[in-house]
């Protein structure tokens, strides 16, 4: 119990650097929302209010908006009278330029500057059938030091047909609104997602059926292979988990119930054959108290344990997290915390973790680790209407131990700053420039641990 008595003192310690961040925020006067998992934060700039803050279980089943801005407007107009397979065809180009510079010490560095992106094709439906394909590539302009994740290991270029799938949509049965998708595809689930934190998304190969944007959303599927964001090779799900030379898959099933417009609850289970099982559950609640005041509360629970032949070891662990955000007249304060079981850290070999403490550098889920996150934001219509936004996260992890020996691991505090520019309309629509800075304060270490990133995205919808 002595470990928990110091938590209030740690909150005070963590609040001190926060005051300097408040001064920075006041200077920038940008919109900021903190507290989402990193794999969600990298998908888009922060939203406008606490009510629109994405949590993992809602994010998994959200509706994906489509752009109505086409480069080949004349061709799109000529297709409008053709059958849906041709009329609803989409071709998109998502370009990305990424500059990454990390320093772990005076002698340990990793830097790269790359260009690349995704060329995507998706047909309309013919007898409810559709096809999709996407080509991914990342090319080196400059690289030095260790691997950065922008390129394949050894700072090698990446090039492959990453997505290729056939889908079928049910329109007139009890499964109305459900979609079956076969072969290579991207997913947005907790622990199994695109994890698009560098140049290219992660991709899964398998078979799924899901329904989204309804009062009862669900997904059921079996995944056989996985390609990480820094690779152009697909490997089995068990090999991605660390069981090299094996060929085991992952079976999943889960869903979300929207009890009202403001309250939802969901859960999902992943059974990694002969590796480990992961169960994840989350509940979220949003309430508008007055015209200028709203709150969002959410809690999450993760349970992991080895199963079958235990190809990646014998372990059993949990993580509990909770998060609250309150917004008043443009000011948003976020507090999140998590506690990880002492038997092992949380494993996430198939995508980004949904933990509320997952930020730029660390996920704060080592064995026995307790972690706190503080955020503050201020939003003005003047800046958000011009496409400007930013967010700051400060997280502190403590009491972590080595699961094998029980030895204490160093405490660490991470400071993240992100500034976005994404024009909402005009000739620059489709552009998104993001600048990110990260600094880590490690206990009993004099090394400077930091990284700096600049990402330029541009989405061009051809059809």
What does this structure look like?
The model is unreliable at 1-5 and 10-33 (pLDDT under 50). The chain starts with a helix and ends with a strand. It has an 18-stranded antiparallel beta barrel. Strands 6-7 form a two-stranded antiparallel sheet. The protein has helices spanning 2-5, 7-28, 38-41, 56-60, 73-78, 84-87, 237-240, 381-384, and strands at residues 90-103, 109-122, 129-145, 158-169, 179-185, 188-189, 192-193, 203-211, 216-227, 235-236, 250-258, 263-272, 276-290, 293-306, 316-328, 331-340, 370-378, 388-398, 412-421, 431-442, 449-461. By secondary structure, it is mainly β. The radius of gyration is 22 Å and the shape is globular. The longest helix is centred in the first third of the chain and has 22 residues, at 7-28. It has a single domain, classed as Beta Barrel (Porin).
Summary of the model, kept short:
About 10% of the residues lie in helices and about 45% in strands. The protein has about 475 residues and is mainly beta.
List keywords for this structure.
single chain, about 475 residues, mainly beta, Porin, 8 helices, about 10% helix, globular, disordered N terminus
The helix content, as a percent range, equals 10-25%
Largest beta sheet, briefly?
18 strands, antiparallel, barrel
- CATH architecture field: Beta Barrel
CATH superfamily: Porin
From the alpha-carbon coordinates, what is the Rg to the nearest angstrom? 22 Å
Mean pLDDT: 88
Number of discrete domains: 1
CATH topology: Porin
The amount of beta strand, in percent, is over 45%
Stretches where pLDDT is under 50 for at least 5 consecutive residues are: 1-5, 10-33
Structural class estimated from helices and strands = mainly beta
Per the principal axes of the C-alpha atoms, what is the gross shape? globular
Tally of alpha and pi helices: 8
Q: Order of SSEs, N→C?
A: HHHHHHEEEEEEEEEEHEEEEEEEHEEEE
Number of strands: 21
CATH class: Mainly Beta
Termini separation comes to 61 Å
């Amino acid at each position: 119990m002595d470990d928990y008595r110091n938590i209030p003192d740690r909150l005070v310690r963590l609040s001190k650097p926060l005051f300097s961040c408040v001064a920075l925020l006041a200077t920038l006067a940008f919109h900021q929302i903190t507290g989402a998992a990193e794999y969600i934060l990298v998908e888009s700039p922060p939203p406008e209010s606490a009510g629109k803050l994405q949590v993992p279980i809602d994010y998994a089943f959200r509706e994906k908006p489509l752009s109505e801005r086409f480069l080949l407007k004349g061709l799109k107009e000529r297709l409008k009278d053709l059958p849906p397979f041709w009329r609803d065809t989409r071709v998109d180009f998502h370009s990305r330029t990424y500059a990454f510079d990390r320093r772990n010490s005076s002698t340990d560095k990793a830097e790269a500057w790359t260009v690349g992106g995704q060329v995507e094709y998706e047909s309309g439906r013919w007898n409810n059938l559709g096809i999709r394909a996407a080509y991914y590539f990342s090319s080196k302009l400059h690289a030095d030091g260790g691997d950065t994740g922008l390129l394949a290991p050894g700072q090698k270029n990446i090039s492959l047909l990453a997505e290729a799938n056939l889908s079928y949509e049910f329109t007139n049965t009890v499964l109305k609104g459900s979609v079956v998708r076969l072969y290579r595809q991207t997913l947005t689930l907790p622990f199994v997602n695109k994890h698009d934190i560098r140049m290219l998304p992660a991709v899964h190969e398998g078979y799924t059926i899901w329904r989204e944007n309804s009062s009862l959303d669900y997904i059921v599927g079996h995944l056989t292979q996985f390609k990480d964001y820094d690779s152009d090779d697909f490997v089995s799900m068990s090999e991605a988990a660390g069981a090299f030379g094996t060929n085991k898959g992952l079976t999943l099933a889960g869903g979300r119930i929207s009890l009202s417009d403001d309250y939802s609850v969901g859960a999902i289970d992943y059974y990694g054959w002969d590796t480990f099982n992961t169960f994840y559950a989350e509940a979220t609640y949003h309430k508008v108290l007055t015209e200028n005041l709203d709150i969002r509360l959410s809690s999450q629970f993760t349970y992991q344990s080895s199963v079958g032949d235990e190809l990646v070891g014998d372990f059993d662990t949990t993580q509990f997290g909770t998060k609250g955000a309150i917004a008043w007249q443009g000011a948003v304060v976020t507090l999140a915390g998590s506690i990880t079981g002492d038997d092992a850290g949380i494993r996430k070999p198939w995508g980004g973790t949904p933990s509320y403490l997952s930020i730029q550098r660390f996920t704060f889920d080592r064995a026995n680790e307790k972690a706190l996150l503080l955020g503050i934001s201020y939003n003005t219509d003047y800046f958000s209407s011009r496409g400007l936004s930013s967010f700051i996260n400060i997280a502190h992890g403590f009491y972590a131990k080595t699961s094998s020996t029980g030895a204490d691991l160093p405490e660490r505090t991470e400071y993240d700053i992100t500034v976005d520019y994404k024009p909402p309309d005009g000739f620059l629509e489709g552009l998104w420039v993001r600048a990110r800075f990260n600094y880590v304060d490690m206990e009993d270490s004099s090394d400077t641990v930091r990284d700096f990133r600049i990402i330029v995205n541009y989405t061009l919808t051809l059809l």
